[in-house]
Amino acid sequence: MQIQVYSDNRIENSSKLVEWASGAAQAKLQRFDQELTRVTLHITDENGEKAGAQDKRCQIEARARGLQPISVTHKSDTIRIAVDGALDKLHAALTSQLGKLRDRRAATTAADPGEGARQEALMEEDYGGEPESDQ
Questions:
Q1: Residue 45 and residue 75 in contact, taking contact as beta carbons nearer than 8 Å
Q2: Tens digits of residue pLDDT in 28-58
Q3: Which residues cross the membrane (predicted)?
Q4: How many domains does the chain fold into?
Q5: What digits encode the pLDDT tens for the residues 71-117?
Q6: pTM for the complete prediction?
Q7: Which domain holds residue 69?
Q8: Is residue 130 one of the residues assigned to a domain?
């Protein structure tokens, strides 16, 4: 999974910000590492020099293999809360979308009558015959 972090010219794009945001994204989305190809974070300050409520914005786009990109946005008073909020939203969206896809694949596998026998043969090959009972 490739993680890219961008910020507008009103936010200092320091190496600390990039490192922290990349680390936070990696930690939060670690579960989806095999499915995601790229995650892009865009961090902006909508009011610039002026202070204001919820003027920091984090928009994240995630690209999963074989699926349309998923995009989420979160606004807050601080960059940290904006990034964490957007990551929470993305995690929930990916859990939902990829979970539905996994359920669909499982239903397709269950519909194949020979699949159960193949699974049983693989289990027997890996673990031997019947499990021993404690008597």
A1: no
A2: 999 999 999 999 999 998 877 777 677 899 9
A3: none
A4: 1
A5: 999 999 999 999 999 999 999 999 998 877 766 666 665 555 566 66
A6: 0.72
A7: 2-125
A8: no
